């Protein structure tokens, strides 16, 4: 029987195209910088887009063909870096936007990487470990000439984690005939992963939140928060903000949202999630609430840490939070930007707020290349300093031009990449 290509329907129509969202901010920042047309054209287009079709023998013996992507947005600052997403709704424009965000993110935190992203259209929740392993290895083999420790370095994203990174590292190593630890980050600790990587993105969200609260003159112990998404980023951000004394009144995941006016005990929520297949469903430490309601709930800080486009022109007018810290990539549609700005809500944008992850991924790569393991203290101290410096730089630019932190972050990033491009030169 002929193999079929597994492809889900296109994403929901009312979702904004993340590539267009990214480009509209890029355009504003480019204008502020007075970016010349040549550099603009170089930076707006991805360097390379690869689409692969991967045949995988499923457990029932039938072959299913999965569609996968790897987009290299830019390598002016160094080898490209970016996660791999396993999701049934992944599509090329989303991967292109995520790849560009990686370029800007690495530039904002001043690490020597370009930007990339990958994805496979699949639903890992319905696949066995064996099926996911075969798919991951086949994807790696299909992209063996794209990946490389000095070329393009993948990492986990939604639907992937250390397990998939281990398979990717192993498969790539076979193709080059030697162990190549630095080809991928987010690996298990025993095989060259970095201490502090698991919590790195959530930790960066915490550091960015505290820095922003200080600018706003708000005391962390008097502040309430709602966190959307309770995966790697959301649960760690919740836990570390909870430890700093913030009252986390609402949390949610794909299975539901929960509210406790007195604050949720995040340690209990994490223990519950770990004991219940990674989901919050049935969590008794809070009362169930409407998932959409969480975004407009009565809290001081909102941390979207799940998926794109959850804050839109439709719900933005009703947001009560004074500060939004974007743990997720692209959680705010561009159409919501002016509404949020008018309301005087501060937004620490994704390319700054969640850059703690790629920063510690960079540390992992450095350690692999050094053949040396840093202590957890070395990792967290260096990552916190990079995060704080980046926040201050972006904040200063926002003050200088009287612009939002989001546009300021794009200005910082594009300026760095454009200046490097000028020095390196084109054809
Ligand atoms: P994850 O797969 O570990 O967790 C995602 C969480 O979001 C899960 O709890 C899931 O149930 C929940 N979720 C999904 N759809 C939801 C919805 N509609 N409403 C509420 N909850 C929903 O993924 P992650 O690694 O935590 O990534 C989350 C976001 O952060 C993504 O945008 C990702 O690109 C971004 N990000 C992740 C990292 C990282 O290091 N993991 C780094 C930078 C950015």
Write up this protein.
The chain is α/β, with parallel strands linked by helices. The protein has a domain of 142 residues: Leucine Dehydrogenase, chain A, domain 1 (Rossmann fold, 3-Layer(aba) Sandwich). 43% of the residues lie in helices and 18% in strands. The strands form 2 sheets. A 7-stranded mixed sheet has the order 10-9-8-7-11-12-13. Strands 1, 2, 3, 4, 5 and 6 form a 6-stranded mixed sheet that branches. Strand 12, helix 10 and strand 13 form a beta-alpha-beta unit. The protein is globular. Nicotinamide-adenine-dinucleotide binds next to helix 7 and strand 8.
Kindly provide the name of the CATH class of the domain at 50-191: Alpha Beta
Order of helices and strands: EHHEEEHEHEHHEHEEHEHEEHEHHHH
Binned strand content: 15-25%
DSSP strand count: 13
Mean pLDDT across the residues is 94
How does the overall form come out from the CA principal axes?
Answer: globular
Instruction: Write the CATH architecture name of the domain at 50-191.
Output: 3-Layer(aba) Sandwich
Give the end-to-end Cα distance, rounded to a whole number of Å. Answer: 49 Å
What share of the residues lie within helices? Answer: 40-55%
By DSSP (H or I, 4+ residues per run), the number of helices equals 14
Radius of gyration from CA coordinates = 21 Å
In quaternary terms, these chains amount to single chain
**Which ligands occur here?**
nicotinamide-adenine-dinucleotide
CATH superfamily of the domain at 50-191: Leucine Dehydrogenase, chain A, domain 1
Strand order of the largest sheet: 10-9-8-7-11-12-13
Secondary-structure-based class equals alpha/beta
Largest sheet: 7 strands, mixed
Spans of 5+ residues with little confidence (pLDDT < 50)? 1-14
Reported by name, the CATH topology of the domain at 50-191 is Rossmann fold
Domain Glutamate/phenylalanine/leucine/valine/L-tryptophan dehydrogenase C-terminal: 194-425
Binding site for NAD(+): 201, 232
Keywords: NAD, Nucleotide-binding, Oxidoreductase
Protein name: Glutamate dehydrogenase
């Amino acid at each position: 029987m002929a193999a079929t290509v597994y492809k889900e329907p296109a994403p929901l129509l009312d979702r904004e195209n993340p590539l267009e969202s990214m480009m509209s901010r890029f355009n504003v920042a480019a204008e502020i910088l007075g970016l010349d047309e040549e550099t603009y054209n170089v930076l707006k287009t991805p360097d390379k887009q690869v689409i692969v079709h991967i045949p995988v023998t499923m457990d029932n013996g039938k072959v299913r063909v999965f569609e996968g992507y790897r987009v290299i947005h830019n390598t002016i600052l160094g080898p490209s870096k970016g996660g791999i997403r396993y999701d049934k709704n992944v599509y090329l424009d989303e991967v292109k936007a995520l790849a560009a965000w990686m370029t800007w993110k690495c530039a904002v935190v001043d690490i020597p990487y370009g930007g990339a992203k990958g994805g496979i259209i699949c639903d890992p929740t319905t696949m066995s470990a064996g099926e996911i392993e075969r798919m991951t290895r086949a994807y790696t083999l299909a992209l063996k000439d794209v990946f490389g420790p000095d070329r393009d370095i993948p990492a986990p994203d939604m639907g992937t984690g250390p397990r998939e990174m281990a398979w990717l590292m192993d498969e790539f190593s076979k193709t080059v005939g030697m162990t190549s630890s630095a080809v991928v980050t987010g690996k298990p600790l025993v095989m060259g992963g970095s201490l502090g990587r698991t919590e790195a993105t959530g930790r960066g969200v915490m550091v960015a939140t505290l820095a922003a609260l200080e600018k706003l003159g708000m005391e962390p112990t008097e502040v309430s928060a709602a966190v959307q998404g309770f995966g790697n980023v959301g649960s760690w951000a919740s836990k570390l903000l909870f430890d700093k004394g913030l009252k986390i009144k609402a949390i949610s995941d794909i299975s539901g949202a929960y509210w406790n006016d007195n604050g949720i005990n995040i340690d209990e929520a994490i223990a519950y999630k770990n004991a219940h297949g990674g989901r919050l469903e049935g969590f008794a430490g809070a009362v169930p609430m409407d998932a959409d309601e969480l975004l407009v709930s009565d809290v001081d800080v909102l941390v979207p840490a799940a998926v794109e486009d959850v804050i839109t022109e439709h719900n933005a007018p009703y947001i009560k939070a004074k500060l939004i810290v974007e743990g997720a990539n692209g959680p705010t549609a561009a159409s919501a930007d002016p509404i949020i700005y008018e309301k005087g809500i501060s937004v620490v944008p994704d390319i700054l707020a969640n850059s703690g992850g790629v920063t510690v991924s960079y540390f992992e790569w450095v350690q692999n290349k050094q053949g040396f393991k840093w202590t957890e203290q070395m990792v967290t101290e260096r990552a916190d300093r990079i995060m704080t410096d980046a926040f201050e730089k972006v904040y200063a630019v926002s003050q200088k031009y009287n612009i939002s932190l989001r546009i300021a972050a794009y200005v910082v990033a594009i300026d760095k990449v454009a200046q490097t491009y000028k020095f390196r030169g084109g054809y």
